[in-house]
Amino acid sequence: MSFKVAIVGATGNVGREMLDILAERAFPVSEVVALASSRSIGTEVSFGDKTLKCKSLEHYDFSDTDICLMSAGGEISKAWSPKIGQQGCVVIDNSSAWRMHPDVPLVVPEVNAAAVAGFSKMNIIANPNCSTAQLVVALKPLHDKYVVKRVVVSTYQSVSGAGKEGMDELFNQTRAVFSAGEVVTKKFPARISFNLIPQIDVFMEDGFTKEEWKMMAETKKILDPKIKLTATCVRVPVFIGHSESVNIECEKPVTADEAREVLRAAPGILVIDKHEPGGYATPHEAAGEDATYISRIREDATVENGLAFWCVSDNLRKGAALNAVQIAEVLINRKLIQPRQKAA
Ligand SMILES: NC(=O)c1ccc[n+]([C@@H]2O[C@H](COP(=O)([O-])OP(=O)(O)OC[C@H]3O[C@@H](n4cnc5c(N)ncnc54)[C@H](OP(=O)(O)O)[C@@H]3O)[C@@H](O)[C@H]2O)c1
C-alpha cells in the first residue's frame, strides 16, 4: 500500500527536510509532488536519489493526493488547508494557523498519538511549534511518573526557526562583521550575529511574546490543560538546533537518578548526562538527528519536588519535518487512511 504525497513549501528549510526524511524512512509513497510558490516553478529539489521539479501550489489539483505535508507559513495554510482537506487529502500543517482550532488535533506522536483520530472533521492535523515539540517529548514521561504541576522554560532558538531568510541574515551579518562591511538587519528585530535577541514573534498585551504564549497554550493542548507554564524565548546565533533550560515542579518526589532512568526509557529521547566537560548535548550534535537530547539533569532544592534539565533538538526535524512525517505514519499504521489511487 503506498500513498501520493504532496509537499507544500518544498523549496524551504522544513520542506527540504521533509523530502529527506520521507526518503530516509522509506515512507510508502507511490508519488511525491514538490509544490511551492509560482516563483519556484521548475526549481529542482532532491528526494532520495531522484530530482523533483517544483510545481505551483496555485495550479495543483489535490483530488488524487492522499497526504499534504504543508510548510509554507500561516497565511498560505489558512487559505489552502481547508480547501485541500475538502478535496479528501489529509493536511499535516507546520504553521501556527490551525494548532488551537477545536476540530484540529495538535499532535506529537510520542505524547498524544491517539489524538490523530480526530482529524476527519477538517482533514487537517497540526504540528506544534518547534520549541513545544521537543519540550513535550521531554515532559511526557516525567508527567506520567511524577505529575508535572509547573514548568519554567527559557529557550535558545536557532535562526533556522525563522526560515531560509533567518539563516541568510546570520550568515550575511557574520560575514559583514569580519569584512568590516555594513551589518544589515531585516528579518530579526535586532542584530543576531555575535548577539542574542529576547524576542521571538510579536508582543502580546501582557508583555509575553506570541512564541512564549504558543509554548504555554500548545503544551496544555498536547499534554495536560492543568500544567502551568511560563516561558522566555530567545533567538541565538546558532544555525540549527533549539536548546531549552527547563525547570519543573512535580506533585510527587523526584530524584535526578530516577528521572534519568525514566527519560532514558522514553521514546524519542537520548540522555547524555556526564558530569564532565562535554558530557552533555549541544545544538551542534543535535543538528541532523532525530532524537530529543536531555542533559544536565539535577534536583532543584529551591522548590518541592523540583527538577532542572537541559533539552536540545533539531528544530527542522523533531520540531517540524520529522514530527509531520511521524504523524503521517500514525495515520497509516492505525489504518486511518487508505490510498485513493489503486495500484496499477
Ligand atoms: N523552521 C522551523 O524550525 C519550523 C518549525 C516548525 C514550524 N515551522 C513552520 O514551517 C513553515 C515553513 O518554515 P520554513 O522554515 O521552511 O520557511 P522557509 O525556509 O522560508 O520556506 C518557506 C516555503 O514556503 C513557500 N511559499 C511561500 N509562499 C508560497 C505560496 N504563495 N505558495 C506556495 N508556497 C509558498 C516557499 O516557496 P518559494 O521558495 O517558492 O518562495 C518555501 O518553500 C512556517 O509556517 C514555519 O512557521 C518552521
TrEMBL record:
InterPro entries: Asp_semialdehyde_DH (IPR012080), Asp_semialdehyde_DH_beta (IPR005986), NAD(P)-bd_dom_sf (IPR036291), Semialdehyde_DH_NAD-bd (IPR000534), Semialdhyde_DH_dimer_dom (IPR012280). Catalyzes the NADPH-dependent formation of L-aspartate-semialdehyde (L-ASA) by the reductive dephosphorylation of L-aspartyl-4-phosphate. Its EC number is 1.2.1.11. It holds the Pfam family Semialdhyde_dhC. GO terms for biological process: 'de novo' L-methionine biosynthetic process; diaminopimelate biosynthetic process; isoleucine biosynthetic process; lysine biosynthetic process via diaminopimelate; threonine biosynthetic process. GO terms for molecular function: aspartate-semialdehyde dehydrogenase activity; NAD binding; NADP binding; protein dimerization activity. This is Aspartate-semialdehyde dehydrogenase. Homodimer. It is an enzyme of class 1 (oxidoreductase). The keyword Acetylation does not apply. Belongs to the aspartate-semialdehyde dehydrogenase family. NADP(+) binds at T11, G12, N13, V14, R39, S40, S160, G161, N315. Residues 4-119 form the Semialdehyde dehydrogenase NAD-binding domain. Substrate binds at Q157, R235. The active site is at C130 (acyl-thioester intermediate), H242 (proton acceptor). The gene is asd. Keywords: Amino-acid biosynthesis, Diaminopimelate biosynthesis, Lysine biosynthesis, Methionine biosynthesis, NADP, Oxidoreductase, Threonine biosynthesis. SUPFAM superfamilies: Glyceraldehyde-3-phosphate dehydrogenase-like, C-terminal domain, NAD(P)-binding Rossmann-fold domains. Pathway: Amino-acid biosynthesis; L-methionine biosynthesis via de novo pathway; L-homoserine from L-aspartate: step 2/3; Amino-acid biosynthesis; L-threonine biosynthesis; L-threonine from L-aspartate: step 2/5; Amino-acid biosynthesis; L-lysine biosynthesis via DAP pathway; (S)-tetrahydrodipicolinate from L-aspartate: step 2/4. The keyword Cell inner membrane does not apply. Phosphate binds at R99. It catalyses: L-aspartate 4-semialdehyde + phosphate + NADP(+) = 4-phospho-L-aspartate + NADPH + H(+).
